[in-house]
Amino acid sequence: NKLDHAQLKSDCPDEVLVELSVTLHKSGRVTEVMFIKSTGCSYDMEAINSVRKLKFTPAMKDGHPVSQYIVAVFSAGR
What we know:
Strand order of the largest sheet: 2-1-5
Structural class: mainly beta
Low-confidence stretches: none
Distance between the termini: 15 Å
Largest sheet: 3 strands, antiparallel
Shape: elongated
């Protein structure tokens, strides 16, 4: 996902990249978010807030919903 460079706060470098490990619960909710790669600036929270708003249809296995993990990548530049 690429957010507009105008969303970068003054505490962020010109180019940022955030990688998150995200647990998508079988209920259709995001239940856990962990950093794989952090920027160390306020953009980190923008990425987490974006992921927490996700709504999805869970993956199915043998006809039943299952939880899964994804990697979400967010980047922006001025």
